[in-house]
Prior knowledge:
Layout: H1 10-24, H2 29-39, H3 48-65, H4 70-89, E1 122-124, E2 130-132, H5 135-153, H6 159-180, E3 184-185, E4 195-196, H7 211-218, H8 226-243, H9 246-249, H10 256-279, E5 282-285, E6 291-294, H11 308-334, H12 345-359, E7 360-361, E8 373-374, H13 404-413, H14 431-439
Amino acid sequence: MIYVGDANDQAAVLADADVFYSNWFSDSDDDEVAGINADFDPFKGLPYWDIGRRTSALVQMYDLIAPLDARRAGCYLERLRRIADALLANRDDKRHFAPPVALPDGNPVDPFRGHAMPAWGGFAQDRDGKWNTDVVTAGLFTYAMAAFARRVADNPALQPQYGADAIRFTTAVIETYTAFRPEMHLDYDGDPQAYFTVPAAYAGLKCSGNHSCEVYRSTAGQPLAYNENLSMMKALAEASLAGTSALYLKSNDSSFWRTWVASYEAPLLIAKNFTFFDKHLSPKKLSDGTPYFEWHHQLPVPSLIQNTAHGGFELGCLAVLLDDKIPLNALLEAAGRSERVALSTPLFVRFANTFLRKIWHYDYHNANGLRNVLSENVDGKGDLSGKANWECAGWIPLAQFDPWVWTRCRDVTWHAREETNMSYVPGYLREDNHAALLRYRQFNQKTT
């Protein structure tokens, strides 16, 4: 039976890492790539979020075991490289379809942008069934490339084997970012907030009663949802550090524009986008004075209160920005900018309180009441059937600020689903929450 215990010594970490890898990933790199290639069928929905969860989990596990076992860590890094390579090979500007899904050169065209994008598209029913690419999915896929590149750039011992891959992945991330740049609101010296916007061309959608489509149409030209913006920030943070490394700067791929993006524009965008998110959080207090946050899914407010799944994704992105905060702020300082990626301990403590006091539910006064259930929404309301229990991964890094977050996430992950009717069956275990529980176990107050 799979379980994440309290023991965090080296032997336990490595044994648990082996269980994780064998449970969630294909036996061989080739099998993994074959599965990804099979997913890129233009007429079926691409599992964007599944792939994003898998690559983020790989990165977390690599970071966990790299200091402990180079051989095992090498397996994780090679798997990440192969996945990133498969994603890049399936980018729209590198794919070739038969008509009518094509320009003369055979690449699929995004009709909302007028050309084949260096991104990943598909036929979207909520965009009138047309081929469509998105900032959020671009962020999900480029993160795999950027995270790989950043780790290779940071470790000279890896560069003889992986340096060329790190360079081309960094270039690919900057290419994708540049393609979406026309949809970005970034005023270098004016507005302190920055964000990507919903494509203006969505204003012409017909929708035919599709509610999701109608939301895209009504928000055309306005800021993208917070999770969609932060998806790209997560990738850009790693790409900035890879793109300003000695490895990349001395390569043939290095150019004035790419260096400008990596050293100046991307760090500035990240800092201002966090400010945008931060300024639209609603500080609240419980009756005992405990501070927490509520927030909505996107502007304009009132929109839907943010749900636990998307909120967790946003917190997972912020966890990466927190890890990269010091070098990103050093780039901003070197560029003569006063802006900073202003993540702080009080901010994360409020988020931890949101999770522990609003989202997590346990009815201490009723033996038949709720037990280890997450609410559907960040305000503690909505569905309480346990459907949100899958969504702990992005919240788990908050254990750095309150160890009870880790404990409660383990509790909800191993909360038996109704159909199992058994205790300690990991009814809500998924690769992303499994990896996060292992990566941040050191912050569990019971860790030995």
